[in-house]
Amino acid sequence: MRLSTVDLQKRLNPDKPKGLPMLVTVLIAWLAGAIFTLALAPYDIWPLALVSPAILYALLIPVMNGKRAFLIGQAYGTGLWCVGAFWLYTSIHVYGNTPVWLALIMIALMGLGMGLFHGFMALTFNKVVGKQPLSFAALWVLQEWMKTWLFTGFPWLFVGYAFTEQYWLSSLAPVAGVFAISFVAVLLAASVVELLRRRSGYMIPSLGLLAISTALWLINPQWTKPKGTPDLSVSLIQGNIPQDLKWLTEYQIETLKIYATLTSTEWDRDLVLWPESSIPMFQTEAVGFINEMVKMAKETDTTWVTGIPYKDEAAFDASTDKYPPFYNSVIALGADAEGLYKKQRLVPFGEYIPFEGLLDILPNLAGSQDIMSYSRGSDKQAPLRVRGHNLGSAICYEVAYPDTTRKNAIGTDFLLTISNDAWFGTSAGPLQHLQMVQMRALENGRWFMRATNTGVTAIIDHKGHIVERAPQFERTVLRGEVQARVGNTPFMRFGQYPILFIIALLLVLSYFGKGSSAQVRSSKQV
């Protein structure tokens, strides 16, 4: 078979496309990533969680050059993070007093950095594994999982969260977690692209998994069951303290007055819950106030749980110039209560300085001796004891870590999370955060109490439904009841290991099957 010069050039330079110019392709990829945020709260246009990865898959399939694939994936990831996490602008500019131009540059740099996950995913898809829906979905979940631990992690904007209340997919959450939902959704999206390319065989795995998910939804297995004790009456206090005043020394007394006043009518409840750092000083500095609250709680047979910075003076070494360790914590006090939980997952630069130990070798660095960081709590902490129940805890954004929350949920009857999302104003950030709590409730089959400073304060049942919800940016009390539940979901037992094993197996098979499938395609072309 003779080949013309044009045919030879096409074979030797397969990446010079007949279709869209590279600049247009990159722009489409950026927009595909940007629109994904509309699939999440508060917009909840969940079909976009299928459309967005489908576009990326369609853009990558015809590309043969690794560099081009990386640029397309990088553009997608940058669009995803620049738009999906733009709520960081509020904390950087409004509360961080950073100039607008610099705040925008910082958001862009964050987008570029986080975009690398999709960039390397696209490169691997192009050069390492077979280019088909199963490997694409497996790589997608791999990069989502890596976001939970690489460089301390930033586990946000997962595809699975878009289906938190789409029960035909969310039924997978208690079985294998949010990553299982992401896998099925992305597999379905890529398979539809192949169907449009008249390669219908790729639909079989996705349809099979959809059938399993739908069957679970219809059967509605009860992975956990009520403990058999009466529901607890709870009051969640939302102080709505402005972020620019919260940590001012001169406003501390006013903050305590606000929470004490809001709680004054709630002392006959089973449990009163205050948000993260609602006492804006160390426990050693608020002894009188804490004693007064504990007295009221015991007199009315009420359990009081509050967020507070906790200084561990027992661990202080007077022979050094270092501060005693202190923690972002939640403590249970009052009637029938005990326990202290110390936050495990700290916010880089917000709660601790990465590589802070390096400052010890720079004694002349201005201000280095005054830098203080929260200490990390142990990953093996006993749950709080509340009214004869075990209460698991998650402080602020550590509830975004599926495995951390899972471990804290084991052996508990219900869960709490406290937060201060005032940093993010009226942006989508707090509502995305709430959606993650719903997913954690689904995964672990436990009721969640969520108390926040400015919202969203809510009570969520074991199916991820919001039972009660307080309005944002109001000084208010949310009253409701929570149910203690026992038993373990499959996700609680096995965590992320089953889905990680599956994607690892798929990627290995795809890697070794790549050569044979390429030969088949080549023979068909000839």
From TrEMBL:
Pfam families: CN_hydrolase, LNT_N. Pathway: Protein modification; lipoprotein biosynthesis (N-acyl transfer). It is found in: Cell membrane. Its EC number is 2.3.1.269. Residues 237-484 form the CN hydrolase domain. The keyword Acyltransferase applies. The chain crosses the membrane at residues 20-39, 45-63, 70-89, 101-125, 137-161, 167-190, 202-219, 494-513. Its main location: membrane. It is a multi-pass membrane protein. SUPFAM superfamilies: Carbon-nitrogen hydrolase (SSF56317). It comes from the Bacteria. It is an enzyme of class 2 (transferase). Keywords: Acyltransferase, Cell membrane, Membrane, Transferase, Transmembrane, Transmembrane helix. InterPro entries: Apolipo_AcylTrfase (IPR004563), C-N_Hydrolase (IPR003010), C-N_Hydrolase_sf (IPR036526), LNT_N (IPR045378). Belongs to the CN hydrolase family. Apolipoprotein N-acyltransferase subfamily. HAMAP family: Lnt. Catalyzes the phospholipid dependent N-acylation of the N-terminal cysteine of apolipoprotein, the last step in lipoprotein maturation. This is Apolipoprotein N-acyltransferase. It comes from Psychrobacter alimentarius. The gene is lnt.
